Every structure is written in C-alpha cells, then in structure tokens.
C-alpha cells in the first residue's frame, strides 16, 4: 500500500472521528459543564481519549487542552492510551495486596506482554474473601469476569486462556 493510499485512509478515519466528536458535542451542547459526559461518550465509542480528539473538544468548548487532560487524567474511568481486547484489573486493596497481588500483577504483565491485553492496578473490588482478585473486562462486549484466590501459576493460566480468544 502506498503512502498516498495510507494518507487517504487516515484522512477518512480522522473525518469520521471528527464527525463523531461533533455529534457528541452537539448532543450535550458546547458547554464546559458538559465536559465529563462528552468525554464519557467519546470514550464509549473510541475506547480511549486520543490526544487529537481532546484537542478538537478543547477547540469546540473553548476549554484549554491542559484543563481537559487534567480532568481526563484525574478520573480513573478515562483512558488516554488505547487498551487491548481485554483489560485485566488486579485488585490492590489491602487484603489482595497482603495475599500477593503484586506477584499476580507481575505474572500477568509478563504473560501478556506480546498480546492485546492491558494489565492495570485497581482499587478494591469488595471481594476480599477471594483475595487476590483479578477482574477481566472484555473491551468488545463489556462483559466482566472475576477470578479469585490467585497465585502466579493461576495468573499465567488466565493470561493464556484469554490470549487464545484474541482475534489475530
């Protein structure tokens, strides 16, 4: 594929994303007080908040990009980087931490380094009796799965199980 063809594809994608952002903003109105719902809707569609999109929101709402990034990075729900097909959230609440969440986290990071899986630390899920706990979230379907009483071997098995289902 030539560079011209790639540029045309990139332009078409950018145009579609721009239309999406404009539709979302018009739904909520060009009002700074609607920033969070606007960002939520954008992320629901794109799965994260790309810098270029945040710049468009900044321009449309008249809000400095630094303010938008501050909001997006303050709230745990927002993502500034793309995520994989699955997100593995390792609970780092007290019970999970004391029962080896750090080791489970490291095992998952290592086991998923070459596949489209995002591993991140999370706050308490309220499943302390199952510590340490990992919540697996499908970014395609939104389904959530809880895996508890894990050790590093279990973590590797979970990584292999979900890696096998990822579209190549």
Brief rundown of the structure:
The protein is of the alpha+beta class and 168 residues long. It has seven helices and four strands, in the order ααααβααβββα.
Tally of helical segments: 7
Main pleated-sheet profile: 4 strands, mixed
Would you identify the CATH H-level superfamily of the largest domain?
Answer: Glutaredoxin
CATH architecture of the largest domain: 3-Layer(aba) Sandwich
Under CATH at level 1, the class of the largest domain stands as Alpha Beta
* Residues in β-strands, percent: 5-15%
Strand order of the largest sheet: 2-1-3-4
Q: Report the radius of gyration as a whole number of Å.
A: 19 Å
Which structural class is indicated by helix and strand composition?
Answer: alpha+beta
The average pLDDT value, as a whole number, equals 89
Your description of this structure?
With 168 residues, this protein is α+β, with helices and mostly antiparallel strands. The protein folds into two domains: 3-74, no CATH class; 86-163, Glutaredoxin (3-Layer(aba) Sandwich), CATH 3.40.30. Helices cover 52% and strands 12% of the residues. It is built from seven helices and four strands, in the order ααααβααβββα. A four-stranded mixed sheet has the order 2-1-3-4, with helices on one face. The longest helix is centred in the first third of the chain and has 26 residues, at 3-28. It is elongated. The chain starts with a helix and ends in a 5-residue tail after the last helix. The model is unreliable at 1-12 (pLDDT under 50).
């Amino acid at each position: 594929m030539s560079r011209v063809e790639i540029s045309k594809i990139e332009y078409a994608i950018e145009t579609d994303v721009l239309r999406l952002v404009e539709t979302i903003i018009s739904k909520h109105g060009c009002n700074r007080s609607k920033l969070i719902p606007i960002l939520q809707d954008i992320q629901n569609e794109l799965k994260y908040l790309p810098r270029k999109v945040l710049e468009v929101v900044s321009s449309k709402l008249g809000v400095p990009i630094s303010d938008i990034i501050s909001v997006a990075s303050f709230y745990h729900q927002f993502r500034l980087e793309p995520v994989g097909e699955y997100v593995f959230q390792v609970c780092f609440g007290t019970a999970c931490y004391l029962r080896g969440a750090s080791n489970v986290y490291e095992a998952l990071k290592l086991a998923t380094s070459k596949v489209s899986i995002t591993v991140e630390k999370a706050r308490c899920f309220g499943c302390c009796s199952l510590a340490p706990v990992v919540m697996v979230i499908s970014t395609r379907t939104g389904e959530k799965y809880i895996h508890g009483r894990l050790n590093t071997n279990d973590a590797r098995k979970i990584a292999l199980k979900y890696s096998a289902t990822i579209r190549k």
